[in-house]
Design goal:
The structure holds two protein chains of two kinds. By secondary structure, chain A is α+β, with helices and mostly antiparallel strands. Chain A contains three helices and four strands. Classes of the chains: A alpha+beta, B alpha/beta.
Chain lengths: 87, 565
């Protein structure tokens, strides 16, 4: 299992575009992808879970990847957070 | 025969597609074989998914993004967990299970106290309705993909409806509410689709599949037209077509009066897609590019990049021809979720347009930077809406200068001499036009709002619509003040309201010395022809006569007389 912490930089939080980009990206990988934020654990492959968690800007988030391609998954997902999901 | 108010001319024949919310009663029963019920539910969901996939495939830009997110919600297993539980464990029928299962997700989003999430709650409710419709084997209407020759029948078309509407297959529009200047009517005229509004109970009278013919000039609607009626309408249709063809020859000409006085004839547009119609009708530029569509059709604040792309597209398409972009013009009467505008008792007198921008400089700067960057690709000007005082103009220009400095610092190219102008739509601006003219490069009179603010009549209020008239002598005096004010500082004065293309009004405007007429692209050729028939000196005489009149009735009568001559 791989974990890494990032801070959400998107001004509007994990909404709309970032939420769908995250779900799309996480779904590419075989491993389980969870994110821990505000004491909640969210399934990063579910756009509804991500959006209903209401993660606000500047929140610290722990990404957790567990499975065969966890190495690549965590790398790409951390990268995506840092790029503000292209916003 | 039924009758309404014709708001967009033309004859249309077609088959009715009625847009209305289905009222649905959901029975609660239990089933013996929940496995089969699960399959029934999944089939229905699958069909909704496929329909949505088709929309995503054919969509572009922002719409594609919105619909892709919507599709992901449909595909998300979390969405249906509760529904499937209700079928498998509680043996409910699929309809009832969908109702309670989806409602639990909807409530979750609604309880989040977040405008954006409330919007997702509506998306999920929409998915629920579509699944229920599939379960009931109802046909759902996809307005972005309509059969040929469709006559749309609706209570009223919303902005989001018209953003998706498959215009090329729409041969007519019938709506229950709306006036000449409602969103639907303006849109219908832009796309040259015959339209009739104020047809009471239209969505009850007409049914899907009805054969209908409409006459957008007279407001007549024929349900199952007889042979005779059809022939008569076809004759009219042919006549209208000939008139349009006759106008073709005006495409190659300048706009000049008989005595060779030249004016500029330009177009009003709402989105970059309207450029096609602008070029087809040989407009000499764009006198008003409303930038609101970028904000209204979007879930988030449009980024500088998105705006830049939209403005650049128009700038490039028009080449050397002038394009005037109006900065954001919205207020509490328009719902733009992410702006979090409060509902106001008097939105038209409230926090809107330039007032909102000067109070949210960050938002304003994004737009100004995008316009400046796009100005390197064509002949763009900037216009500020709803200016009521000289301080607002100065403040707006100051912020524009800051944006220019920022771009200089970033070595980004833009037109350093970009022109800035203002809308004259508030009486106070017309009254101080001499002063305003010394600090900007042009005026554009917005008659629709100028009338509303001058005679204190809300535009959309049917009960007092008689008082809303462009013929009111006070309105005409303000128009004259604005034109004279502009000319005193040697700047040009245009007009971008509906009045600029009104056949009766045009001679008066020529007589008052208006320099630029901006209108719906479809009115360009007709207006060019009309101006070509006029003699400027006669128009000046007419204007002088009218300026001393005191009643709107008298003004209208005189203008009719002049037109009939």
């Amino acid at each position: 299992m791989k974990t890494e912490k990032v801070v959400l930089e998107n001004e509007t939080g994990l909404h709309a575009r970032p939420a769908s980009e995250l779900a799309k990206l996480a779904s590419k990988f075989k491993c389980n992808v969870k994110i821990n934020a505000n004491g909640k654990t969210i399934d990063a492959k579910s756009i509804l879970s991500i959006m209903s968690a209401g993660v606000k800007a500047k929140t610290e988030i722990e990404i957790e990847c567990d499975g065969e391609d966890e190495e690549n998954a965590i790398k790409e997902i951390v990268e995506a957070f840092k790029n503000k999901f292209g916003e | 025969m039924f009758k309404g108010k014709g708001v967009s001319v033309g004859i249309g024949f077609g088959t009715a597609v009625v847009l209305k919310e289905q009222e649905r009663k959901i029975e609660k029963t239990t089933v013996d074989e929940p496995e089969k019920e699960i399959i029934r539910f999944k089939d229905a969901l699958k069909q909704v998914e496929e329909d949505t996939q088709q929309i995503v495939d054919s969509a572009t830009g922002t719409e594609k993004e919105i619909m892709s997110a919507y599709l992901m919600i449909i595909q998300d297993p979390t969405l249906t967990v509760e529904t499937e539980n209700a079928i498998s464990n509680l043996k409910y029928n699929a309809e009832y299970a969908v109702d309670i299962g989806f409602n639990s997700v909807i409530q979750l989003f609604e309880s989040m106290d977040d405008e954006y999430m409330a919007g997702r709650a509506r998306d999920i409710a929409d998915i629920k309705n579509r699944v229920l419709a599939k379960l009931a084997n109802e046909e759902t209407i996809n307005i972005s993909k309509l059969p040929e020759n469709t006559i749309i029948v609706a209570t009223e078309l919303t902005t989001s409806d018209t953003a998706k509407l498959d215009f090329k297959n729409v041969s007519g529009i019938i709506s229950e509410i709306g006036g000449t200047n409602s969103h639907t009517s303006i849109m219908a005229r832009t796309h040259a689709i015959p339209a009739i509004t104020r047809v009471e109970d239209a969505t009850k009278i007409f049914r899907n599949g009805d054969k209908i013919a409409i006459n957008g000039s007279t407001g007549e609607i024929f349900l199952n037209p007889t042979q005779e009626e059809t022939e008569q309408l076809q004759k009219l249709q042919k006549q209208l077509k000939e008139e349009t063809e006759e106008l073709e020859k005006y495409k190659k000409l300048d706009t000049r009066t008989k005595d060779d006085y030249k004016v500029e004839l330009v177009a009003n547009i709402g989105t970059p897609a309207d450029i096609e119609s602008v070029i087809k009708n040989s407009a000499e530029g764009v006198g008003l590019f409303r930038s609101e569509f970028l904000y209204m059709d979007n879930e988030n604040m449009p980024t500088e990049e998105e705006q830049f792309e939209a403005y650049k597209k128009v700038a490039e398409a028009m080449g050397d021809k002038p394009v005037i972009i109006r900065t954001l013009d919205v207020g509490g009467d328009k719902e733009i979720k992410y702006l979090h505008l409060e509902k106001e008792a008097n939105p038209f007198l409230g926090y809107r347009a330039i007032r909102l921008c000067l109070d949210n400089i960050a938002i304003f700067k994004i737009q100004l930077r995008a316009i400046l960057r796009a100005s390197a690709f064509g002949n763009l000007s900037i216009m500020f809406p709803m200016i009521s005082s000289i301080e607002e103009l100065r403040e707006a220009k100051k912020i524009l200068e800051e944006c220019k400095k920022e771009l200089d610092g970033e070595n980004i190219n833009y037109n350093k001499n970009i022109k800035t102008g203002i809308m004259i739509e508030i009486p106070s601006a017309a009254l101080i036009s001499v002063g305003l003219a010394t600090e900007c490069d042009f005026f554009s009179i917005g008659t629709n709002d100028l009338i509303q603010y001058t005679v204190a009549v809300e535009r959309g209020n049917e009960k007092i619509s008689k008082l809303y008239t462009k013929y009111h002598p006070a309105v005409i005096k303000l128009v004259k003040l604005a034109i004279d004010g502009a000319h005193s500082a040697n700047i040009f004065c245009g007009m971008c309201g509906e009045a600029a293309s009104d056949e009766l009004y045009v001679p008066l405007l020529v007589g008052l010395g208006l320099d630029e007429f901006s209108m719906n692209p479809n009115s360009i050729l007709k207006t060019r022809k009309r101006i070509g028939e006029l003699d400027r000196k006669e128009c000046e005489k007419l204007a002088n006569e009218i300026l001393i009149m005191t009643s709107a009735e008298e003004v209208e009568k005189r203008l009719k007389e002049f037109a009939d001559k």
